[in-house]
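Sat 14:20. Reprocessing the chain from the morning session after the first attempt stalled halfway. Input below, unchanged.
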Amino acid sequence: MLMRDEIKAAIEAILFMRGERVGADELVEILDIPLLELRDIMRELIGEYYQPGRGLQIMPVDDGYLMCTKSEYSEILARSVQPVKRRLSQAALETLALIAYRQPITRAEIEKIRGVKVERVMANLMERGLIEEVGVKDVVGKPILYGTTQEFLRLYGLTSLKDLPPLEEE
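Finished this time. Tokens:
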């Protein structure tokens, strides 16, 4: 059985290596510890990373955890890497917003709302890892349902979809 400091170190290594959200249930299974112990250790770790002088943080995300850089270092980080991603087009932003607020949603439903074809836009969003197939609708033809990804949440600084700003009424 691992000691508490070893468990904390193992969690740091797992989160760093993955570079994406790791579910609490998965950490419990990997580390062979009770969920309550994991939550206690994670509160401690999150507090340690919250301290000044740390460039990384651990964020709770949808009943899991993600290690990422602190936002106060974003300018320095921006200077340290060459931008490789193109900005999203207006059509892509509108489509992404529709998916975020109405997921799960089919391509046909998006096209009906937007009034234009969105196949290319959705392929671009999938290629960027912002949306994914989340199932099929139980109707004739079984159209694919789409939803946003953990990358979408990370990119927009959200911990869950509940953090989306409310829609303005027209």
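The first strand starts at residue 22 and ends at 23.
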